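Record Portal protein, 470 aa.
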Amino acid sequence: MDWQELSLTYPRDPDLPVRAHRLAALARVLDGTQYDAIPNPFGREYNGAGEYIPLSARRPSVRTNMCRAVVDDAVSLLFGASHWPGLVATDPQLPAILAQLAAETALPALMMEAATRGSIGSSAVLVEAVGRRLRAQVHDTRYLTPLWDGAGDLASVTECYKVRGAMLAAQGWPIGADDAASVFWWQRVWDRADCHVYVPQRVEAGPPARIDATRSSHHGLGFVPWVWMANLAAPGVVDGPCTFAPAIDTVIECDYLLSQSGRGLKYSADPRLVIRAGPDPYADGTPASSGGAASALTLPLDGDAKLLEINGDAAGAMRDHYRELRASVMEQIHGNRAQADSLAAPTSGRAMEMLYQPLLWLTDRMRLCYGEYGLLALYRMACRFSHVLAGGLCIGGQDYVGLDAMGLALQWPPYFPGTEGEIAQLAQGLGQAVQGGFLSRQSACALFAARAGVPGPHGEWARINTGSQT
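=>
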């Protein structure tokens, strides 16, 4: 079975676009539920009518889920606790203000969720102001449709999906008891000035066309409060390429190979007995025997008995084949091909970077689409909120009006911290460069602090000048 055949087992809604079906199918792979639509377990060989069930019609008993593993590894290197980027800006107070905002809104966890869910193609974050405090939430892009203007700025975002009448009635919509089980379209549209909520309409009547003025709102921000992030792509693209799509076929092969290998090893532990008897083997009325090797049988002189089992050579061949398939998967999606048991001793930060180089290349691309085009866009949007909200933006119990995002940029920490020897060697080299006049002390301080993993390396120079030791 390949990915094309497996995806045909998923239910399809003819009213939704092809893009929604594709993202839903890839989301199943990311969640590890891609085989749940297959009704038969792997150990069931025959159905109720005695017909043989082919392997493609059975759920594999082993799910490697290597696609999710690669995504989790890359996201951890992107927005993990020790990899969260620092900030620099023209206003020296702005990085500390935005760091407080990130802590209040749980921005690291939100961006990790956005990068994980966006690996199927895209992710989107809605930013709302509640009591002059910002609240951000990741939304499923299957039901979202963005639109950009000629300058590349987001002009509108449309959300449209199906919902039962009973759920609408629970939200206060005038839905009668007869329509509780009916299916309606739910739609709302954000633009630069308003959030239009449409009156739900039955699916057979088509998309909603009438705006509910009482539930709609006028935000007057002057911009669309959404940040759209296309996976591994530049801004202005609805969906980027899926991170793990090239390897799905090989992962399916791995799952079925390991499932069949495990099935063979279980049969070897309790092999099936095949008897070739003489002309009249059951003359005494004794039925055929089956079971494990502990069962002793008495056969006629011309009879024969064999055990059907997998030998060690076949098991080793399956294991070697799986390793080749795993290496192919990691090569296709730039995963970590290093084996944990091959690391006999701690290595330097540079050696670890060389060991994880394919995964770091993937993370470098993710730093652009989710960092420069995602996280940085969220920070800049927060500054724009401070210009629009009456009374400014409340962060950490203080009000901030007119935050200036000029010069705002991300400062990424090293992927792996250097060892004591590497840091000492770097300090010695930077000292010689400063003494020789090839490098300023401020640049040397920033380089050393960044390599040592100091949060906000550019702020270290200010702390040195003020004599602060904290």
